[in-house]
Amino acid sequence: MSLRACRQCNMITEEKICPNCRSSDLSEDYSGILIILDPDKSRIAEKLGLKREGLYALKVR
Questions:
Q1: Average pLDDT along the chain, 61 residues, taken 10 residues at a time
Q2: N or C terminus of the chain with fewer C-beta within 10 Å?
Q3: Which CATH number among 3.10.450.50, 1.10.3720.10, 2.20.28.90, 3.40.50.300 corresponds to the domain 4-60?
């Protein structure tokens, strides 16, 4: 299992295309993980502009 983070929206996925923004620009080089369970009630999701629940990388290289 290889997790990759999208360079466009920072979502972490196992797929070859980001399920959030449909970008194929993914990287295995990322750090920090943020789990968003309810983006409507999360201040962190609001501050980062995240609209979907899921796993996100804090930094993608």
A1: 94 97 98 97 95 97 96
A2: N
A3: 2.20.28.90
